[in-house]
Amino acid sequence: MNEPLAKPRESCGVAGAWGPATPVLRTMLLALQHRGQQSAGIAVCRGDGIVREAGPGRVTEVFPDPDPPVLWDARGAVGHVRYATSGGDGLDGELAQPIVLDSAPGRLALAHNGTLTDIDRTRAELGVRAGASDTEVLGRQLAAAVQRLGGSLFEALHAILPGVTGAYSLVLTDGERLYGVRDPQAFRPLCLGRLADTWLLASESAAITAAGGVFLRELEPGEVLRADTDGIHSSRLDVPGARRATCVFEHVYFARADSRITGRSVYQSRYAAGEALAGHAPPPPGADVVVAVPDTARVAADGYAWRTGLPVVQGLLRHEGVGRSFITGDRAGREAAVRQKLSAVPAAVAGRDIVLVDDSLVRGTTMTAVVAMLREAGANAVHLRIASPPHRWPCFYGIDTGRGDTLLGARVLPERLAAHLGCHSAEFLPVDALLDAVGGAPDSYCTACLDGRFPTAVELPGGVSLQRQP
Length: 470
Known about the structure:
This protein is of the alpha+beta class and 470 residues long. The chain has two domains: 10-245, Aminohydrolase, N-terminal nucleophile (Ntn) domain (Glutamine Phosphoribosylpyrophosphate, subunit 1, domain 1, 4-Layer Sandwich); 270-440, Rossmann fold. The strands form seven sheets. The protein has a seven-stranded antiparallel beta sheet with strand order 3-2-4-1-10-9-11.
């Protein structure tokens, strides 16, 4: 597929806390750092309104103090780590979230994970500048609705969001309450937890447990959750015909292994995918060892090794301090990141036939470099096994898998992939086997990047549209 992409914006980690323990918000953002590395921000509620502090870089760079002053004496807070997918990297912090907007009756702070697919039309209707992010456009819609509805953010959310198309997990505050919202398709995760008298919201359950909280549950599709001095209140957006379409790539790669998505442990999903991969694509005769591409493929590699009886060796080392190459913006940056973060171990791989297990194949940049490293380290043969199907379609719901012409699986025939990557063989887990591994109803997941079945209509530049698939 080589159609031009509708502009995606950013996928990221969102977090919120309401109660006397808001300093835990920084800890939650640290636990969500894998979801975004380009900027971090916190907005807090105080007696004088909402105060925001944000900037470029990772959480420890923007908030080096473990107990940042911005969180002192705050009764509630909203946080965000950003992963840019277009519209510039925003490395100067200009695009950092949460955003804070003024409306006549008050203010609101908004942090967003996902992509809104109809945002160009909405931007034009509102007269918002061309470079504004979908988060800013949504915030302006909500602020205008708050003003129109006499200051009620709760009513504004129910008035505006049913007409919004795309992926959004939101954490918001109006200074008096904390809100969490998950879109009717539940594309991106959002979880509720508690720490003593503080209510916690986070993109992943692992962030709640990292802060010492108790994970209670995931928000339901279309749920609007409000936390205030009276406790938790829940309501639903009225969006007839919406079907659940949680991103399957959360299980494959994006989420932490110690998180829960759709009620299932991500670790269990990845281990089961590795076992299923071993049954579908067993090791060739003469294979000696299994090597995982660190870190997200380690669990799948363990499942593959257990099923095949081959030992796992640490043939690749991951070096600390280098972020995820997948969410590095350009190809040159990704190639440099791969060489910086990974190295092969000659003593583990030299003279051996290796089964190399990875979780996914998107652009192929990482895999080409990894195979070359292993061959340079003396491996006799490298047989690639991927615990998901190849990505052939772009994502419009908050993950930058790239354009159709950058997706290796879309431009290279399956029988030529091994030669292109420099390995001896390459096999993939079929989509139906992946869905079995992640559990739950198969039609409750979005697999559009793998099979082109988009759960919503997507508008592309030039009037071209991709229609919703059954």
